[in-house]
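Moderator note: this is an archived Q&A kept for reference. The question asked for a predicted structure of one protein chain; the sequence and the answer are reproduced below.
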Amino acid sequence: WRTLNSEVLNAKHFAHDTIKRAICYVHSSRAIIKKKGTSAQSGQETFTPANNTIMTEIILLGTFHFPDRYDIFSEQVQDELERFVNRLSELRPTKLAVEMAACEQSRLQEFYRRFEPSHLTSEYRFGELVRYGSKIGFTSLNEIVQVGFRLARKLRHDTVYAVDEDIVLSDELLETCSEALSEPSEKFNRFFQAATADREMMLEDMYRLHNDKQYASLDHNMYLHLNRVNKGSYEGSRLVLAWYERNLKIFSNIQNLCEPGDRILLIIGSSHKRILENLVRDYSEMRLLEI
């Protein structure tokens, strides 16, 4: 027992010393960062790894899912989309990623190769894809085509990348936890109605709203309210765990897509944006570009 206790004590000392060394390293790194100065674009402290690896720049565009309130194929909305995509093209991304299951990359790529400008102005059926465990028709009435394919073709990209993870949330858990959404949903809806009332929301206005910080905070807060539900088996936490798992897998797909010097634009449902922003900010190999 004395030998065992001694080994345990030594292990504790080793762990303690390891943590101390890690803390010292973090503090010394911060000192180096401050000496190196700030980014001219963002005004925030920047960090270049010791091996001078060029960081990947990430642009997150939160989107709503088409058609929403818009007549997508109308001349007016097509003009708005063209102007919007022209502005996105000025960001000069080297890769475009979209909210499609990564396992469907080959199908998405096939659809992109077949894409023609005429598909933008009338509903064109490309074929079927697996979405949330079921096969669905994939048509041009979709932000992946209207924004993603349009932008990729404008930039002469050969590939559009699928980075989503096809996780199906439990209907049983959703029903169990639904009551927890009443208060945060009401706050979110009041904010949304106030932002859109008494004005014509052009398509770019809607994108601006879906990328607003208060919008993201209220949206994300609904998931945190779900986490409170515990009727004996942490039902809320299990539901939110699946949501975080999906976002972590999306982030993993982005990590594996990155090459030094890339600027990746991800077009994804705005509910994902808060989690992904935090992951990008905390990852030493990436730099978040605000839009």
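Archived answer notes: Residues 1-9, 22-47 have pLDDT under 50 and may be disordered.
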